[in-house]
Design goal:
Blueprint: H1 3-16, H2 20-26, E1 38-41, H3 43-49, H4 53-63, E2 70-76, E3 79-84, H5 86-100, E4 114-118, H6 130-148, E5 152-157, H7 165-176, H8 187-203, H9 206-220, H10 223-247, E6 253-254, H11 261-273, E7 277-280, E8 283-286, E9 296-299, H12 307-322, E10 326-330, H13 336-348, E11 357-360, E12 365-367, H14 382-400, H15 407-424, E13 432-434, H16 436-439, H17 447-464, H18 480-501, H19 506-525, H20 533-557
Parallel strand pairs: 4-5, 4-10, 5-6, 10-11, 12-13
Antiparallel strand pairs: 1-3, 2-3, 7-8, 8-9
Helix pairs in contact: 5-18, 7-8, 7-9, 9-10, 11-12, 12-13, 14-15, 17-20, 18-19, 18-20, 19-20
The structure holds arginine (ARG).
């Protein structure tokens, strides 16, 4: 809620005796600026007051006095419409952007409370898949957003580095991998070993037994098994890190599933102690039938533990270590049931924080030209995707602006930004269709478009070449296009709060598209640099404020905002 809305809410609170949050939910921003800046619908009062909404609106409008910053109050049909004094409004908004600059949109509501965010979390010895990319980008944006709201964020990569498949990999490596060339192994080689293992295991059932033996050895801490596993892990981490670096994704800790090995026993003991477990078909489970869910599997009949067991242990560990206020798991929708089960088990264990575990799910990412689709044996190489995005942008820059300085770093910022934006701008639980031409278009609803708008604003400011000051005559900012833009800028802090509340970075993307649209309408109708010094000063302040908001918004999404492109 912005300052003006707050003002209106407090007036309405007195007049209607509704609660603050009720009014907040009701207040609307009229689609047409001529109808006012805020509108309050009177339908919900109609029942209690036994009057028609139109009548209530008329009465309220008469009763409420328009005092600064409200300049006029008018009933329009069933609505009470509020007009804010434009100069007061603009001054308030633009001065706060000037003052807060890089921190505009930030807040202190988090009070340093800890939020643990689990994102990307790929499985080692396999390529980083597209859903790990989506998770990384959404998770990292949520991290930035929560951090700007004053939370202490802990970003964790919960690597999938444990499970029976590592027994298979060891067998395959010993049989068909060349142990001597050890050093030059890549994730592709490891992946091929898996494929080979499964092909051979179809012909030879002994292989499965061998692999089970090796996994047991690994669980027991056998030196050779451990060394090989560590080697696979090192190879994988090196490749993952390369991609995280390209994307600018940061983690505070890489704590894989294997880390919980020594803790799962205690977790299982606690579960047993609370009488929550039973044996079913030789496996140890928590029965979740009363909650209409399949059982949560804790231990298989060969005594090995499972993904869910490790997630329960991990949640306990995170609570103990970080004392989180909230813990967020950014994982694809296909794991909905898994998290429902894990959270339910935590609740049954008596943890009052179980309801502060949140699964932030998301849809699939598909590729329009089908080129990058995951077919059997053919994996999406994210590194190639990112390199290609940068390459394509480099070509566009070469055509449009060959004299540009720092071409390399701009191509990088824009290419990577395009991929990040294309991923984040769709509501997260919908599927994303990635289309090269769309994602890289400088004119569509894309990252490059927003970055380009930002760079254009920087170029206007360079041309102006004088210091920007908030000491201007605010009554000069008066045309509809101008006010609409200022209203957009005023919304930024509210949008960030909403994005945090719903774990929805797409709200920030769509907001930035709106701001750029408003900016372009303003810019196409009004000259920024003119002979009229005072007007120029006022419009330059607006240009600088818009630049600032776009930059802050892009940064929250993990996208750079180059000043020239
Ligand atoms: N490694 C898992 C996968 O690739 C994702 C892990 C998500 N995080 C978690 N705490 N379970 O599907």
């Amino acid at each position: 809620m912005d300052y003006f809305a707050k003002n209106i809410i407090s007036i309405l609170k007195e007049e209607t005796h509704l609660k603050e949050d009720e009014i907040e939910n009701l207040i609307e921003i009229p689609p047409d600026i001529k109808m006012g800046d805020y509108a309050f619908p009177c339908y919900s009062l109609s029942k209690a007051l036994k009057k028609a909404p139109n009548v209530i609106a008329t009465e309220l409008a008469k009763k409420i006095q328009a005092i600064n910053p409200i300049s006029e109050i008018k009933a329009i049909g069933p609505y009470v419409n509020f007009f804010v004094d434009k100069a007061v409004y603009s001054e308030k908004v633009l001065k706060s952007i000037s003052k807060e600059s890089d921190a505009y949109g930030h807040a202190k509501i988090g009070n340093d409370k800890a939020v643990v965010i689990d994102y990307s979390s790929p499985n080692i010895a396999k390529h980083l898949a597209v859903h790990h990319l989506r998770s990384a980008l959404i998770g990292s944006a949520i991290y930035h957003i929560y951090k700007t709201l004053g939370y202490k964020c802990v970003g964790i990569n919960h690597l999938g580095d444990w499970g029976t498949q590592f027994g298979q990999l060891i067998v395959a490596y010993k049989k068909w991998g060349n142990e001597n060339t050890h050093k030059s192994y890549t994730v592709t080689d490891l992946n091929n070993l898996y494929v080979k293992f499964h092909q051979e295991a179809e012909k030879n059932a002994d292989l499965e037994n061998e692999s089970r033996e090796w996994f047991k050895k690994l669980e027991a801490g056998d030196t050779e098994a451990r060394e090989l596993w560590q080697h696979f892990k090192d190879i994988s981490l090196k490749e993952f890190q390369k991609i995280y670096d390209m994307l600018g994704i940061h983690f505070d800790a890489f704590i894989g599933e294997s880390f919980y090995n020594t803790m799962v026993e205690d977790t299982v003991r606690r579960l047993k102690g609370k009488g929550l477990t039973r044996i079913s078909e030789e496996a140890l489970i928590v029965d979740l039938e009363p909650y209409n869910m399949p059982p949560c599997l804790l231990r298989k009949k060969d005594d090995t533990t499972l993904y869910a067991t490790r997630d329960i242990a991990a949640a306990e560990y995170r609570k103990k270590t970080y004392n989180f206020d909230k813990t967020i798991y950014v994982v694809g929708s296909e794991q909905k049931l898994h998290f429902k089960q894990v959270f339910k088990v935590l609740e049954l264990m008596g943890y009052d924080w179980a309801n502060r575990c949140v699964h932030v799910d998301f849809g699939l990412m598909k590729f329009k030209d089908g080129k990058m689709s995951t077919r059997k044996g053919k994996v999406v190489l994210l590194e190639d995707l990112l390199i290609e995005a940068v390459e394509r942008i480099r070509k566009i820059i070469e055509e449009k602006n060959p004299a540009l300085e720092n071409k390399e770093s701009v191509a990088n910022d824009v290419g990577i930004g395009a991929v990040i934006f294309a991923d984040l701008c769709t509501k997260r639980n919908k599927d994303v269709v990635f289309d090269w031409d769309e994602a890289l278009n400088f004119e569509g609803e894309t990252g490059p478009y927003i970055q380009y708008t930002h760079a254009r604003l920087c170029s206007i400011l360079r041309k102006y070449s004088k210091p920007v000051t908030p000491d201007i005559n605010y009554s000069l900012l008066k045309e509809d296009e101008t006010i609409i833009l200022i209203k957009n800028l005023c919304q930024f802090p509210t949008i960030i709060l909403k994005a945090a509340e719903f774990y929805e970075p797409s709200l920030v993307c769509n907001y930035l598209i709106d701001v750029c649209g408003s900016l372009n309408r303003f810019y196409n109708t009004h000259r920024v640099l003119s002979e009229d010094d005072n007007l120029t000063k006022a419009r330059i302040l607006l240009v600088n404020s818009t630049r600032q908001v776009i930059k802050n918004g892009l940064n929250m999404l993990g996208i750079h905002a180059p000043e020239q492109m």
